[in-house]
Amino acid sequence: MPISRLADDSVLASDGRVLHFSVERFLRDIVLGDCCFICGASPSTVEFNNEHVLPRWLLKKYKLYDIAIKLPNLSSHSYGNYVLPCCVRCNSYMNTQIEVPIQEILAGGVEGVSRHVRTQGPHLLFNWLALLFIKTHLKDKFLRNVRDERAGDSRSIAEAFHDPVALHHVHCVARAFYTEALMDKTAIGSILVLRAKIRDHFSPFDYVDLHIPQSMLIRMDDVCIIAVLNDSCAVVNLFFEDVKRIEGRLSPVQAREVLAHVAYINTHLLERPRFLSEFDELGPQRLLAQVPAQAVLDENDEPPFREFLTRVCGPLFEDAPYYPTMIEHMRQGRMGFLFDRHGKFQFDSMDFKGDENE
Ligand SMILES: [Zn+2]
């Protein structure tokens, strides 16, 4: 398809679609502006409606409409009100291209998701995860960082917490269903599809994302998906030996500990991939990365793993009477949930009776 390049280095298709937002245009129109986060249309030119940050089918399935989501500034909103402006056309297209097929894949549980990735590749799942992540962080810009104006801080959460330039690659991936860009394997991050425990005393749903490490967890019934969006699979290579030791189904806190590990590793990569989009007049757009020859961890341990663990796992125990003691143990690096002191997988994590048959 013939393409044209704009002065700001964005790229248009002959049918008018923005195939590629330059970083400059992404910041102006999407991060700071109010254009549709998929096609870039202005609300003054096309009809807009609200897109739920977590898709409606998920809110309905796990009865999340009234459940509070904890934001980076520690305020909370209910998932049902957590929506982002999006044009009607993109909203509906996103539904048919992404949400409907993803919903079908997830209906097959952990086996269904694993089978899909094995036979069809990770592209659709990675696109969906990038959408969840970008929606969460674009939503932040509409929320004030400090709700009480008398505090004198008028920055939005986005301004106070985020590096929007770092979100550019995630935005390119999230729009791939619309731009029809091909994702090279170097553009795809680490994705772990792990088995999760189902128990009456666990919530069947969990979602956590960490914006600087671009790492996320979504747990739904027996499937737990943990992903890093901007590492070109460096993290999964470095974490592979530990993944092999995960011999049973993960409890909610163990799933979160895996997230803490991948976020720690991603934050401490010595060299990072550099992402780019390639265009060919005759072929489709390609998302790819220049990847370091080897994934190597930085010897500088700051911030240490125990800080990631405390931040990610601590909130699960907020209502427990032993919370202060537990947090103190985590902060001091004396507490873990995945493996015991001999490095063996802990089968009875968060179980009252222990696990049989796992
Ligand atoms: Zn749109």
**What's the number of extended β-strand segments?**
14
What is the average per-residue confidence, as pLDDT, rounded to a whole number? 88
Please identify the structural class as seen in this structure: alpha+beta
In total, the number of domains comes to: 1
Overview of this structure, please?
- With 358 residues, the protein is α+β, with helices and mostly antiparallel strands.
- Helix content is 35%, strand content 17%.
- It contains 12 helices and 14 strands.
- Strand 13 and strand 14 (286-290) form a beta hairpin.
- Helix 5 crosses helix 7 and helix 9 (234-244) runs antiparallel to helix 10 (252-267).
- The longest helix is centred in the N-terminal third of the chain and has 20 residues, at 88-107.
- It is globular.
- Bound molecules: zinc ion.
- Zinc ion (ZN) binds at residues 36, 38-39, 41, 87, 89-90.
What's the short version?
The protein has helices spanning about 25-30, 55-60, 90-105, 110-120, 125-140, 155-160, 170-175, 175-180, 235-245, 250-265, 305-315, 325-330; strands spanning about 5, 10-15, 20, 50, 70, 75-80, 85, 180-185, 190-195, 205-210, 215-220, 225-230, 275-280, 285-290. By secondary structure, it is of the alpha+beta class.
